[in-house]
Amino acid sequence: MKAAVLHAFDEKLTAKEFVKYEDVADPKITRPSDVVVRIGGAGVCRTDLHIVEGIWRSKVDVNLPYIMGHENAGWVEAIGPGVEGIKVGDPVICHPLVTSGHCLACRRGNDMHADDSVFPGINANGGYAQYLLTGQRSLIKLPKTLAPKDVAPYTDAGLTAYRAAKKASRHLLPGQYVAVIGAGGLGHIGIQVLAALCAAEIIVVDRDDKSLELAKTCGAHHLVKADGNEVEATLALTGGRGAEAVIDFVGEGEAVARGLAMTANDGFYYVVGYGGKIELPTIDLITTEKTIVGNLVGSYAELVELMKLADRGLVQLHTKEYKLSAANDALHDLHHGRIHGRAVLVP
């Protein structure tokens, strides 16, 4: 099969080619629960750039060369002898983690904290290819309204955004505010989820005018330009108290300190993006009673819930398609901020 393969790390992201488009061996079924999916779409994520940079080397054990791509959807191509409930040809979206289902975390629905797991595209070959090896427990059948290439990024970007927005929606009341920092690939999904799940007013903070325009179409009630005065602007919108919830899809640079500053006392700061540091005197955390919440990719059940919202048209992805052979173009466009929404590779 054809695949876009990572052969070497590039810490400064200066190479003309991050991956090489080449022939590799087809994935093979070795376990009864294995499934091979013919890729219909593979999302291009900022995490992929971090992988190219080598940031994940300290977190996962992976040997180069290997195939990135952890946001995948397509059609069932082949199934192991123990697979039930799906058949060849079924359109599916893949939860990003492949687990056995036997550990206590799995049985509680905490897929991302499973004792025994494989994460295609992170610590195993992923979906920047014509075919992907995954497992039966990871697959969700798609309704006729949703095409694989249109939903692939939901498996990480959408699922992560959904998990954070769902947490926030559980305590947000009418008359309260939620601030979303970053209206890009994850943020524009999170805004729509918030609009679907709660009645709080949504403030969106971003430095890019096009991203703010996108945020408005996604359901934002207030737009704030990230120009160094976003804390003051957010406090003004909320009557000086700050937002009861802040969801930070940036998580680096000045966004972290400013996100905490625009969080109301007794409010919640949900950090999704990474690369920065949280530095806060303990006395300030005590006196303000702010809650800081980390957010990892969501569970299988949450991906099912997100697909229900997508099926009803309550959440829509803004995507830009690239051929699989143009994976480097997509990665460079993402790196240089030329993508508003999500990029998707189509074999």
From TrEMBL:
Its cofactor is Zn(2+). It comes from the Bacteria. Pfam families: ADH_N, ADH_zinc_N. Residues 14-345 form the Enoyl reductase (ER) domain. Coiled coil: none annotated. CDD domains: arabinose_DH_like (cd05284). The keyword Metal-binding applies. Keywords: Metal-binding, Oxidoreductase, Zinc. Its EC number is 1.1.1.1. InterPro entries: ADH-like_C, ADH-like_N, ADH_Zn_CS, ER, GroES-like_sf, NAD(P)-bd_dom_sf. PANTHER family: ALCOHOL DEHYDROGENASE 1-RELATED (PTHR42940), VACUOLAR PROTEIN SORTING-ASSOCIATED PROTEIN 11 (PTHR42940:SF8). Belongs to the zinc-containing alcohol dehydrogenase family. This is alcohol dehydrogenase. It comes from Rhodopseudomonas telluris.
